[in-house]
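Subgroup meeting minutes
Present: P.N., E.W., G.H.
Scribe: E.W.

1. P.N. recapped why we're keeping a running log of single-chain structure predictions: easier to compare across weeks, and new members can see raw inputs and outputs side by side.
2. G.H. added today's entry (281 aa).
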Amino acid sequence: MGLSQRQAGPLLSLLLMGALVWPPPCLSLELIPYTPQITAWDLEGKVTATTFSLEQPRCVLDGRAAVANTIWLVVAFSNASRDFRNPQTLAEIPAFPRLLTDGHYMTLPLSLDQLPCEDPVGGGRGIPLLRVGNDPGCLADLREPPFCNTPLPSPGPYRVKFLLMDASGSPQAETRWSDPITLHQGKAPGSIDTWPGRRSGDMIVIASILSSLAGLLLLAFLAASTVRFSSLWWPEEVPEQLRIGSFKGKRYMTHHIPPTEAATLPVGYEPGLDPLPSLSP
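Output recorded in log:
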């Protein structure tokens, strides 16, 4: 049954309106000329095995975001970022478990007043960064919202972008995707070899040579110390009278009279005295 001209007019108008709104709003978002990147602050642990630190998008969304808008961070595996489709409602926002199945999720919802344009004064807690994967206990806590910032499960690489959404969950604007971000790869504790018996032959030879050198140095030190201390106790120039085996001293004789002379002296005579007076007339 054909349509009359009166009936076909409204239907044609609806088709034309549909053509005007195509493509859908999610594909015609405002692209903000900003690329997320790792923070430029000189900090240790900017990239770890499970986290990475982004600079905050300060002054990037000014003039585009309303008070009720929310700024979300989209995290995706690098090879899955091209397949990500912006959610159209709050119920469609992907939580962290979707990373393991679909390769992407959304986290760190922020309001515009949390991203002021003023630079922080000094360092410490005022450093403007967003640490992705910094909440290890959020999945275990049932009171936490489903969009928790749990540690990342693998080195990646990852790409991220910021998505501006209104109160109903409709996207308003988005940034570019970041360059690939690869996390540090640490060794599992069970893979670290701590048994000396599994060392290579070169390591054993080097260890033996170093041990021998250490022993020789110790012996040389002991020999030098012995020579040094012996020179302190026994000087090189010792008087001949004090040397062992050549001690010279005066022989002690009774009354200092040699035995050969004492036999020829008269009784009662002592050397150095006048002869005894004779008792004979």
